[in-house]
Specification:
This protein is of the alpha/beta class and 451 residues long. Helix content is 40%, strand content 13%. It is built from 16 helices and eleven strands. A hairpin with an 8-residue loop joins strand 7 and strand 8. Bound molecules: flavin mononucleotide.
Length: 451
């Protein structure tokens, strides 16, 4: 393990011989935090999580305790807890590691949350393709039930009396969006809902108050209860406490899943010290830090400005600290922590064509700007790659993206627009060069790889 890493969520999976059995989890201190939480009134557990400053790990980074505070507790309706295990953002592979390798950690955080918000039922909505993940979770829930930690025969001192249902999604990106997920869970097509009025904390699953939280967020809750909200808040960076899981993929020597305390390492340290640097003979060219919908960074560009706490900065890509505020200040986002690395063998128009094809396939079609715009973006980048591009296509890509961002029911529209809005100005010259080269019949310059 690199000195830059601090493995808390991944501590168990590092233990030699560690298995997903409840006995193994309990042998290493599992479910003690749940007992601690159960001895506290629910409101106090909510306060601890609020005090911790934990921000949701599903992409938007919304403060978890604040979200729980929005719950409509006066409606008299049951409160639902939905764990978002859809994890379909390209480049993201952290939640599945928790599910596959340490499922009881997720269950413990989830049961603590259920107690905190007084949930009547828990649903874990898992991406359809994660067949084994669903089986592992179902087995772990059976074990927890047999140990009196949940379900009809819960031991009141040890567990929280709630049923946990694992629901496999149909395999659709937009069903990861919380209101699309709720529609899908209700058995309908996963069309995201309009907010207002459909804020899940007020009008969620079956019209009842609902909290939707990401898998990693739930796992963090266990550690907040273990160490206390104040202690958790002291770790990490200003405005971004705790550790983050970073899933690094693409053109580095050692891609993988790494856990780093927020702000305690830079992108350069992640790429070079932890991931071993670029492949031999190559140089880094571009990077997407938070899953494919986050805005792209170009090696060589500089970022200047002030952080929310007033600190001035002047950074290159490799100097950016790995925390939410620093990445936002550089015009991108921490997103899901899915770092996609590209080196100088990648032709940027091909990379964008790949991304555009994904979002065009995944749009749900409800909002015209997203439905039509995503198709046009994909068609234009595809025609450039096929050798039919025109110079004006570059400006057209940016124009179309500008007409999508912020104009849709859900953030899928932003996910369509942001890669284009960030890549076009940064790689305009290369795009024009690709158009000229490919229209003249030359497809691939020496040294570039075909994606
Ligand atoms: C198109 C789209 C896809 C999303 N996919 C996921 C996903 O797969 N997993 C996830 O946790 N959040 C996903 N989100 C974010 C959720 O809407 C929601 O913000 C998150 O589950 C809240 O959990 P958190 O507060 O713990 O971060 C997605 C959002 C959008 C707009």
């Amino acid at each position: 393990m690199s000195a830059h890493e601090r493995r808390i969520l991944l501590a168990n999976v590092d233990r030699p011989g560690y298995t997903t059995d409840i006995a193994c989890y309990q042998h290493h201190g599992g479910y003690i935090a749940l007992q601690k939480a159960l001895a506290m009134p629910p409101a106090q557990v909510c306060d601890e999580v609020k005090r911790s400053g934990l921000r949701g790990r599903g992409g938007a980074g919304f403060p978890t305790g604040v979200k729980w505070g929005f719950l409509d507790r006066k409606s008299g309706k049951p409160i639902y807890l939905v764990v978002n295990a859809d994890e379909s953002e390209p480049g993201t592979f952290k939640d599945r590691q928790i599910i596959y390798r340490d499922p009881h950690q997720l269950l413990e955080g989830t049961l603590i949350t259920a107690h905190a918000i007084q949930a009547a039922q828990i649903f874990i909505y898992i991406r359809g393709e994660f067949q084994n993940g669903a089986k592992i979770l179902a087995h772990a829930i059976e074990e927890a039930r047999a140990h009196g930690l949940c379900g009809a025969n819960t031991n009141q001192n040890k567990g929280y009396p709630v049923e946990i249902v694992v629901h496999r999604g149909g395999g659709c990106y937009v069903c990861g969006e919380e209101t699309g997920l709720i529609e899908s869970l209700e058995g309908k097509r996963g069309y995201p809902r309009i907010k207002p009025p459909y804020f899940p904390a007020v009008l969620g699953l079956y019209g009842c108050p609902t909290i939707v939280n990401n898998v990693e967020t739930m796992a963090q809750v266990k550690h907040i209860l273990e160490h206390g909200g104040a202690a958790f808040a002291e770790t990490g960076a200003a405005g971004d406490s705790g550790t983050h899981l970073w899933g690094v993929s693409g053109l580095v020597k050692h891609p993988g899943l790494y856990e780093i305390e927020a702000g305690k390492a830079t992108l350069g340290e992640l790429l070079h010290d932890i991931c071993g640097g670029p492949l031999d003979g190559r140089r880094f060219k571009a990077l997407i830090p938070g899953g494919s919908s986050a805005k792209i960074l170009k090696f060589g560009e500089r970022f200047t400005g002030k952080l929310p706490n007033g600190t001035a900065f002047d950074w290159g890509v490799e100097d950016i600290p790995l925390d939410a505020n620093s990445l936002t200040a550089c015009g991108t986002s921490l997103g899901t922590g899915g770092v996609i690395v590209m080196d100088d063998s990648v032709e940027m128009v091909q990379a964008l064509a790949n991304i555009n094809a994904f979002y065009a396939h995944e749009t749900c079609g409800q909002c015209t700007p997203c439905r039509e715009g995503s198709q046009w973006l994909a068609r234009i980048t595809k025609r450039i790659v096929k050798g039919g591009g025109r110079e004006e296509d570059v400006a057209m890509l940016a124009d179309i993206a500008d007409q999508i961002a912020g104009r849709t029911i859900c953030a899928h529209g932003d996910a369509v627009a942001w890669p284009v809005q960030s890549a076009v100005p940064k790689f305009r010259e290369e795009y024009l060069e690709s158009i000229h080269r490919r229209t003249s019949g030359q497809t691939q310059p020496k040294g570039l790889r075909l994606i």
